[in-house]
Amino acid sequence: MGITLRPFDIKHLLISFSFIFLFTTSPILADEIQKGAEFDKLTQQLVKDGFDQEKIKTLFAKETIFFNPEGVSLFFIHTESSLNYDQFTSKKSISNALKYMEENKTFLDDAQKKYGVDKSVITAILLVETRLGSYLGKRTVINTLSTMAALQDDALRDKIWNFIPNKKKPKKEDFLKKVNKRSKWGYEELKALIKYSARENILPEEIKGSYAGAMGISQFMPSNALTLAKDGNNDGKIDLFTHADAIFSVANYLKHHGWKSGITRQKQHAVLFKYNHSNYYVDTLLKISDKLKG
């Protein structure tokens, strides 16, 4: 025999279904991160670690600062071996580098004398990093680092994963391992960027750089800018977008990592490897240096 439901019963049944739907789906909704709220946990962590709450709140409320999965996804498919380093040892590149050395002779000579680093090596680094300052990167550094730092959250990791083209996707396991490591690294670099920009009175959202967050003519990460960058033109501030400061900063970086006048080729290679962990990169720098010295 069938059951006949009165209007009163139907109304209560619908209400019951509504409550069941609400409570069974709420955990799923809770896992989703709304657009514009991606940095909520990140900013809370920054305040917890000692940054001024109002300053952090004001900084991350700016429309120019946002979660950038498209840019950061490149970080997980980039390989040094795929770069064409031969372009930097061409006749045209070497000619440009020699011209650069002549135009910046005073700063290069002073840096070489003070830090013991050959000016041809300093020039080689600036040539490979930014084509002597002509290509500095167009990505907003704080967006890159904030996005990387926020990847402690699984939902945000998925957003990055989905932006990687299927043909270039690494193994998911390898991706997650790299994300875990790089999100911690990104957080430390983000903290350094905020400190550096405050010290030098620079708006962090105006600093542009590479897909990995490196900035300036020397392509320093913020932690290096904060600790190893130098004022090369004695104007009272450190601006890595000026040639003098970039030159002195590279020289100080290499000295800090063990460069001394007259060190062996093998030792030179080991020190330069600290700048970029790539044998292709280091071999190219030494080839350029040889050519610049004639």
Short description:
With 294 residues, the chain is mostly helical. The protein has one domain (36-292).
Secondary structure elements and pairings:
Elements lengths: L6 H25 L8 H9 L4 H8 L8 H5 L17 H13 L1 H11 L3 H12 L8 E2 H9 L4 H10 L8 H28 L8 E2 L12 H6 L15 H14 L8 H11 L3 H14 L2
Antiparallel strand pairs: 1-2
Structure commentary:
With 294 residues, the chain is an all-alpha fold. It has one domain. Helices cover 60% and strands 1% of the residues. The chain is built from 14 helices and two strands; from the N terminus they run H-H-H-H-H-H-H-E-H-H-H-E-H-H-H-H. The N and C termini lie far apart (102 Å).
Keywords summarizing the entry:
mainly alpha; two-stranded antiparallel sheet; 60% helix; globular
Largest sheet: number of strands, sense, barrel closure? 2 strands, antiparallel
Q: Output the strand order for the largest sheet.
A: 1-2
Task: Indicate the low-confidence ranges by residue numbers.
Answer: 1-31
Number of helices: 14
**Average pLDDT level:** 89
Radius of gyration: 25 Å
The beta-strand count equals 2
Task: Note the beta-strand portion.
Answer: under 5%
Series of secondary-structure elements, N-terminal to C-terminal: HHHHHHHEHHHEHHHH
User: Terminal Cα separation, in Å?
Assistant: 102 Å
Overall structural domain count: 1
